[in-house]
Amino acid sequence: RLFVIDSGPYNDEPIQLLNVRSEGPLWFPDGTKFLFLYNNQSTGTLKLDGTDLIIHPDKGQTWGYNLSPDGNLITLWNNRYDIYKINPDGTNLTQLSPNDDYSYSHSEFSPDGSKIVFSKRGDLYVSGQTDYEIWTMDINGENLTRLTSPDPGIKISNPKWSPNGNEISFIKDR
Description:
174 residues; four-stranded antiparallel sheet
């Protein structure tokens, strides 16, 4: 369920905007609507007043999503470990990750909106071990660039751009 409440001192009950399982609301930059996980399956958008619900088409169960800095694009990844982009109005669902046997996840737009950083299961993958790497690509899915090297048994994930776009932080875990 999706709620909103005034950020000031307590003066009212939260307002329920949607009565269906909803998770991880992200505000659009203009503050007029949300992007969220709808019914544990796909992304959706909803205006702040509870109107104009748009449920996005999906290619498998959505596991994560992010908004471009200007709010004009959404990047998401799914349970098939593919990365897509889609317009907020639900049009132009486009696969960005290569159509291969690797796993792609944790996509996020750069601060200027020109690139996407993401995690990719590396070339050293051995059954039972993970060896993820951090990569970037242009928002059209081209110019894939590896930023880290694979390390057997190490998972590198959750890349995040610095505010100026000059650095990328990530988690490295055995």
